[in-house]
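Side project, low priority. Logging it here so it doesn't get lost.
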Amino acid sequence: MDYIEVRIDVKGQSEQAEMLTALLAEIGFESFVEEENSLLSYIPEQVFDENVLKDFFENSFPSLAEVYSWKKIPQTNWNAVWESNYDPVFIDNKVCIRAPFHPKPENMELDLIIEPKMSFGTAHHPTTAQMIQLMLEEDFENKQVLDMGCGTAVLAIIASKKGCFHVDAIDIDEWSCENSEENAQRNNCDNIAVFQGDASFLNENTKSKYDIILANINKNILLRDLSIYENSLKAGGLIFMSGFYESDLNDIDSTCKQLNMKLQKQSVSKDWCAAIWQKN
């Protein structure tokens, strides 16, 4: 699969880059790399529509309409892109997330080797980091877990290493599923099963099955699929969600309340929010 790279000049404005990331994800962009003055965004070539992109900037970010460019990136060139920008991530002095070419750290509870390729989820973004921080505080021992929109499977791998019984990792993107399987094998996690699909997969295959659901996606998809997640969660089970701004928390919590799920915990980093709800 070939990708289109869109380079946007954000002049070091991290808040603007984060908002762009969230909104571009809603029109099909899958992966992002932040440079000092630019945001690189990637979308499958068969999904890319130059007119849609032009309308996006003219309607949502007119100030950036003249400072972006795009080009085709063959899949085989992706490693050079992410290796040049990919540093190890350390979380709470407990977790290291690194590429295969990084040296192994000392005195880490969890050491993950993640090769992201075209998939989202290396913990460089605040939403992934916050999800991991919340996961570190919870008991996963012998739990049935779902990682929805798994990306690189980084959350599934952490759940596995924290002692869960089994993880189903689901992503709509074929490349992400392939990457998730590779990363699960790379980290010796044989209790992770990867499936390609969206929330409809849960309607067809699960009902009240999971003790914990992990969903780091975006606000619109979360709101659309929350009732399906609730139906797949055991009574007393937990759902961890991120991929939305702090200002969106009330909207998501309101829907969760309607589904008989109560907010238990939340965190905020750079205006991004992550939170845990429990099903009554």
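Brief comment: The longest helix spans residues 219-232.
Revisit when time allows.
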